[in-house]
Amino acid sequence: MSDPENYGEQMKSKGGISRVFKALGYTWDGLKAAARHEEAFKQELYVIVPLSIAAWFVPVSFLERALLFSVLQLILIVELLNSAIEANTDHISLERHPLAKRAKDMGSAAVFLAIVIAIACWACVLWEKYGRNA
Fold first, then answer.
1. CB under 8 Å to 126, separation ≥6 — which residues?
2. Same domain, 110 and 59
3. Mean pLDDT of the chain
4. DSSP of 61-104, one letter per residue?
5. Which domain range does residue 8 map to?
6. Is the pTM higher than 0.90?
7. For residue 134, what is the DSSP state?
8. pLDDT per position as a tens digit, 70-121
9. Taking a C-beta distance cutoff of 8 angstroms, is the pair 75, 40 a contact?
10. Distance between CA atoms of 46 and 50, rounded to whole angstroms?
11. Residues 48 and 12 in one domain
12. Which residue among 5, 79, 86, 128 is the active-site one?
């Protein structure tokens, strides 16, 4: 960067349709980075991709189908945020520090809670459809 005083301004979006395409590129880069470098994200993909496809074939209402699909995507969203926290924490320092541990542990807890939400939603929808009459 040639002008450190205007660094923030240089990094700001300029708007327009090119901004949309750049944002899509950044999104794709982020997904590729997570799939390449984050073991937890890879493991979650192995479960979530097939379940996301299956969610569209479960004979439930459109709203229930949207719920089944969305809670799975929520896990990936929270995992991406957790991975970003971990990467940024490690970028700042690789030294052990109580605040770094707290940040990473909180991110992990957020992923766990997203998984609990997904399991609860799937269980409720499937119980409503198949469990009551059994």
1. 58
2. yes
3. 91
4. -HHHHHHHHHHHHHHHHHHHHHHHHHHHHHHH--S--HHHHHHH
5. 1-37
6. no
7. -
8. 999 999 999 999 999 999 999 999 999 999 999 999 999 999 999 999 999 9
9. no
10. 7
11. no
12. 79
